Model the fold of this input.
Amino acid sequence: MSEFNEPKLESLLGLGQEIARKLREKNENISVMESSAGGLISTSLLAVAGASYFFRGSTIVYTHEARRDLLEINDSVLEGVRPSSEPYIAILAHGLKEKLSTDWILAESGATGPTGNRYGDAPGHACFAILGPGVERTFTLETGEDNRFDNMIRFASFGLGQLTDALG
Done:
């Protein structure tokens, strides 16, 4: 796993460059679905010159309405699946992969703070899914912090680090 300690906003750019290099080497592309990272994952990838070569698209799915309208995932598909969980984010990742026909997906959903979410998760809780050729992984991160923006950076850094590892 990539090193994870006190990421700074600038460190996201280095992760984006590394991912871009690996995707170009593989001649593959990526799409991103974010919630609590608020676009920082996508920004990190789009900041790389030539991003149109490997970046297919992204969406910020922050509400149930956005999930239904943008990903076209009906409530019935998620019946009995707790939001902000690994099974939940895996379903959303598959929905985006189907919608955009992308080689790789990085999906994230969580609770940035300063309070937890309505599902009982503390601030600093986020779940991630990575889908790619022969790869399907889910992760949960608990930062133990309640600073909203710091958690957004941590979520983006963690997700990008996990993607870097998955790309090999």
The chain has a mean pLDDT of 94.
